[in-house]
Amino acid sequence: MYSTTKSPKNFSAGHVIMRQGDTGENAYIIEDGKVEITVENPNGQKRVVGTRGAGSMIGEMSLIDNAPRTATVTVIEDCTVLEITKEDFSRRLESADSVLRMTVQVILTRYRDMLNRADLKKQNKVESSAENVERCYLEQTDAVENLRIASEFMSALENDEISLYYQPIIDLKNGDIYGFEALMRWIHPEKGFISPAVFIPVIENNGQIVQASNWAFKEACNALKRIQSATQYHRDLNMSVNFSSEDFSSPNFIENINNSIKETGVKAEQLHLEITERLLVAQPDTAKETLAMCRKAGMGISIDDFGTGYSSLNYLHTYPINTLKVDQSFVRDIQEQKNSKELVRSIITLGKNLDMLIIAEGVEHLEEAQILKDMGCHYAQGYYFARPVPEDEVIKTILEWENRDI
After folding, report:
1. 175, 403 contact by CB (below 8 A)
2. How many CB atoms lie within 10 A of CB 395?
3. Which residues of 206-236 are buried (b: 16+ CB within 10 A; e: fewer)?
4. 5 pLDDT tier (thresholds 50, 70, 90)
5. Side-chain half-sphere of 143: how many Cα atoms within 13 Å?
6. Rounded CA gap, 46 and 251, in Å?
7. Among 102-111, 116-125, 313-322, 384-393, whose mean pLDDT is lowest?
8. pLDDT beyond 60 at 398
């Protein structure tokens, strides 16, 4: 069981908070007061190496290893401190971005190594040990691969290795193509196809997603114009583009969206911004204001993977959402699992009662499409209808489209 929260501790002047040579299990942040740091040499001579006051951290090296304390810390002015346990630090570090986690661990290890170098007799042994620890950190984390992906991604975007594939969204009432969802794809010249499940989280964590999303939105708008022009399809097609919480953090988000619409000449009513519940949790206030402006301009707002979060119902009246996308995990089990079937039915009924559009994801079989249609679901996408394909194949698909039996 992890220790997560500790009450502040008070130490009076003269109290020894930690002693050189003792095993440490925690670090402290000084809120008030002052401490003196002393080091005892092998010959027994003590020397003061410094003092620390409010806002300082002491004992931090105990958070990364089981080595003994390297100094004694004595209170010289009454202190109030906050405790950080090794367990809590480890838990927080494990949940951090892998690059941050690796960097912190390596820096702290090198700092410990630097301190130990004061004893020159241990230098070779300590240096070898530190190198082994660093190597261990590198081997145990995916941080290096994430850094490699991040460093290659922007070049890939500039060199047209990144492209959009489009998956048709079908009107269940008559089998017509309603629109498309734009999906980012990376075809590496040496590694081949790199899954979005691999690179999207990386570029979200390091902020590259903002530039990638700006490019994807504008490209999707241009593609929609080209597709509509090349096919002369009998109805206005729609385009859905995915956005992350990082995108909504960008101060230029609305400006970039509006500029892309203006430059490409696409009607705002043909565009859907596809978001997840994670975005609404991460950016509640910004999302509400930004989505309201998008809706006012005429764009649709789709919430992806609906039903997989813990507070979905609250979003429906808090945010200007007009489309629900039923998660494919429910659709996949709709024939076999009664609970999944009833959950899908409930989502469809709820959405329709709120005058929302309903799109079911992951439809792979005719029977699933028929069940969804009977439930009153408006639209569906999935391999039963079509896989995501490049723009030229989209045009061919539309020109040769024959409505599937539903």
Report:
1. yes
2. 20
3. bebbbbbbbbbbbbbbbbbbebbeebebeee
4. very low
5. 20
6. 55
7. 116-125
8. yes
30 vs 395: CA distance, rounded Å: 65
The residue type of 404 is: R
DSSP 46: E
Cα gap 133→127, rounded to integer Å: 10
Q: What is the pLDDT of residues 47-69, one digit of tens each?
A: 998 999 988 889 988 887 788 89
**Strand 271-275 relative to strand 300-306: parallel, antiparallel, unpaired?**
parallel
Read off the pTM: 0.72
CA 288 to chain CA centroid, Å, is 19
10 Å CB burial of residue 45 (0-12, 13-18, 19+) is: exposed
Beta bridge partners of 334: none
Residue partners of 373: CB distance under 8 A and separation at least 6:
172, 173, 406
Helix, strand, coil shares, percent, the chain, to 5: 45, 25, 30
User: Do 180 and 167 form a contact (C-beta atoms < 8 A)?
Assistant: yes
Token couple for 196 = 């979005």
Backbone angles phi, psi at 235, to 5 degrees: -135, 155
Q: Is 303 helix (H, G, I), strand (E, B) or coil?
A: strand
Q: How far apart are CA 179 and CA 309, in angstroms?
A: 26
The amino acid present at 280, given as its one-letter code, is L
Q: Are 19 and 50 in contact (CB under 8 A)?
A: no
Alpha-carbon gap, residue 333 to 136, rounded angstroms? 42
Q: Which three-class secondary structure state does DSSP give residue 199?
A: helix
Amino acid found at 87: E
List Cβ neighbours of 246 (8 Å cut-off, separation of 6 or more): 204, 207, 209, 210
DSSP annotation of 270: G
Place of tokens 């002393």: 38
Ordered DSSP codes for 198-262: HHHHHHHHTSTHHHHHHHHHHHHHHHHHHHHHHH--SS--EEEEE--HHHHH-TTHHHHHHHHHH
CA distance 385 to 179: 12
Contact 9, 83 (CB under 8 A): yes
